[in-house]
Design a protein that fits this description.
The protein has 272 residues and is of the alpha/beta class. The chain is built from twelve helices and six strands. The protein has a six-stranded parallel sheet with strand order 3-2-1-4-5-6, with helices on both faces. Helix 1 crosses helix 5 and helix 3 crosses helix 5. The structure holds magnesium ion.
Length: 272
């Protein structure tokens, strides 16, 4: 009987970039920079990273709705950005994504081992992303080759609306036959991820160290002053908790231990 939750956590739903693969979420950041520059508008890295986690057309729309970028667009094109302009920039994003993302398929440190450990506990591995499926045509096989191959993948174009709506989580649960929602841990690296997990009724967990907000590659993480990293992680953890995160961990490497902790808490009656 699927509804029996005495065994605690039955599944996890993992975000892709910045959580499972692509430490620092660098692939999509590079694509957005190039796409906007093609239209003569140069966004800052903060403007690019702000809406990360959203479905990618929505990401473009949100960027062009900021006063600074809207003004730059108007300077360059003599009019405020409209739906057609959003479509044009998004078209460029869509064209660039497959090839660029293939270079950012490496699982974050400890990801492959964490998934092995979760599977050994009988926990199913779902996943979701703000990418559309066509953008992942080269990323999926490259990530599989590198050791990341979840049991289920739901992309933003499969549901009526991406994050922060909970539909991608719910479609994962349906495909993996996972129930009830409180037996699932949703893990992500952005505020939109946290809100999605909360809305889906899961344990919503944020990762800080490999996140979009910190933006460090694996090599940069090793070179940076640990105190600087610690302060940035602390600030991001506070933002995640403010958005409703039940737990915040450094990276997906900490997930198996956290799942044990949550399962134990559930035997004591705790719910998300
Ligand atoms: Mg992400």
């Amino acid at each position: 009987m699927s509804e029996n939750n005495s065994r605690g956590i039955r599944g996890v739903i993992l975000d892709w970039a910045g959580t499972s693969v692509d430490c620092g979420c660098r692939g999509p950041a590079a694509v957005f920079a190039r796409a906007f520059e093609d239209f003569g508008v140069s966004p800052t890295i903060e403007e690019i990273r702000g809406p990360m986690g959203m479905e990618k057309r929505e990401h473009v729309r949100t960027m062009l709705a900021t006063p600074r970028l809207a003004a730059l667009w108007e300077q360059r094109w003599g009019k405020k950005p409209d739906d057609k302009d959003i479509d044009n920039v998004f078209g460029k994003v869509q064209a660039l994504m497959p090839d660029v993302l293939a270079d950012y398929a490496k699982p974050v440190p400890g990801c492959v081992e964490a998934i092995d450990s979760l599977r050994a506990k009988g926990i199913k591995i779902g996943s979701c992303t703000g990418y559309r499926k066509d953008m992942m045509s080269r990323l999926i096989p490259a990530a599989r080759e590198a050791g990341f191959s979840p049991d289920c993948l739901v992309t933003a174009d499969e549901v009526p609306e991406g994050r922060p709506m909970p539909w991608m989580c719910q479609l994962n649960c349906m495909r993996l036959n996972l129930f009830p929602p409180e037996s699932i841990v949703k893990v992500g690296d952005t505020i939109a991820d946290i809100q999605e997990g909360v809305r889906a009724g899961h344990w919503s967990v944020g990762v800080t160290r490999t996140s979009n907000a910190l933006g460090y590659s694996e090599e940069e993480l090793q070179k940076e002053d640990p105190e600087v990293i610690r302060r940035k992680e602390e600030a991001l953890a506070k933002e995640f908790r403010g958005a409703g995160a039940h737990y915040v961990i450094g990276s997906i490497a900490d997930l198996p231990e956290l799942c044990d902790e949550i399962s134990l808490a559930m035997t004591n009656g705790r719910r998300p």
